[in-house]
Design a protein that fits this description.
8-stranded mixed sheet; alpha/beta
Length: 330
């Protein structure tokens, strides 16, 4: 993000209320591009990956508490927030490699990876491609576990959206507040943290290069029919790794049924449903989420990667697929 877009405290002047960062950012150069991240605490490593249009500030309610016991790294992913927005590869694989390279540059070898929404897809890809870096995986309202997704996101990948989105973003930035709530409520986004984060995300698309990065990222995982990238065919491999799924029952963006079905595919996984929570449980139920993450870490043994065990699991293949829970089912 351009420095002139920030005030003296490093806060965007045009973000809706509640968009303040947690603290000073740290910065590194990675493959010639600037990557900003927040780091706090000491102890076992915990990596927090945000979703599309979001930033590391999405973790602002939980990161300070987690940092009391863990070393917490929360990057602004390339194409987002204060990190560079180059013309380049915005696929899940590229993001996963970027996370690996950032951790390597910072000197970290292994840790627990937590991904929210699109960040959940990155966490799964990261765990699949670089399992030697991962001790545990926690997925919060994660993408990549089913086709259904909010129509707003499907519309963002339609032909011509690259011309319309910057105009929409300027409107949302200017009209943050009651007008945003009115528009969002008409498309199923209710009052609360979902509104604020939804508005923040769209307002961020006014930054130079942000809308282009958003479109490239979205089109890598979503088409007009919904999510086009699925981890379900190889998610069975996660039964070797401590895995937790967390979902809010009132998530308007990605249906809670995706989490329920993923838990059935990985029967040894831990599954947490937060009653009444929306798409951002870390904002509307931060104490609950912190407690669940701590319990998950404390009560599971770190995954130890072994080529032989992976080979054996691949040879066995997946168990017979469970019958999916239909969308909208209780």
């Amino acid at each position: 993000m351009e420095r002139e877009a920030l005030d003296k405290n490093g806060v965007r002047a045009d973000w809706p209320e509640g968009g303040e960062p947690m603290g000073p950012y740290e910065q590194v150069e990675l493959h010639g591009h600037t990557v900003n991240f927040q780091a706090a605490g000491s102890g076992p490593l915990l990596v927090l990956l945000h979703g599309i249009t979001s930033t590391s500030d999405a973790w602002r309610e939980v990161m300070p508490v987690l940092a009391e016991e863990y070393t917490v790294i929360a990057p602004d992913l390339i194409g987002h927030g204060r990190s560079a927005k180059p013309r380049g590869d915005y696929s899940l694989g590229a993001y996963a490699a970027g996370v690996r390279d950032l951790l390597a540059l910072l000197g970290f070898e292994r840790g627990t990876v937590v991904g929210h929404s699109f960040g959940g897809g990155i966490a799964m890809q990261f765990s699949y491609l670089f399992p030697e870096y991962v001790e545990r995986m926690a997925l919060i309202s994660s993408g990549g576990l089913g086709r259904e997704v909010h129509p707003m996101l499907r519309a963002a990948v339609l032909p011509g959206s690259e011309w319309v989105l910057p105009l929409l973003a300027r409107e949302w930035s200017v009209r943050a507040g009651d007008a945003v709530r009115s528009v969002a409520s008409k498309i199923g986004i209710e009052a609360g943290p979902d509104i604020a984060e939804f508005a923040r995300g769209y307002a961020s698309l006014t930054e130079e290069g942000a809308s282009e990065a958003f479109i490239h990222t979205m089109r890598s995982v979503i088409d007009p029919d919904g999510q086009r990238v699925s981890a379900l065919d190889r998610l069975y491999l996660a039964d070797q790794m401590p895995t937790m799924f967390v979902w809010g029952t009132a998530d308007p963006i990605i249906p809670v049924e995706h989490g329920r079905n993923a838990h059935r595919v990985v029967p040894n996984s831990r599954y947490v449903e937060i009653e009444g929570s929306g798409h951002w449980p870390m904002l509307d139920a931060p104490d609950r989420l912190v407690g669940e993450l701590k319990s998950f870490i404390e009560e599971t043994e770190p995954f130890k990667w072994s080529l032989e065990s992976v080979r054996e699991r691949l040879q066995r293949g997946p168990e017979p697929a469970p019958e999916p829970i239909p969308a909208g089912a209780d």
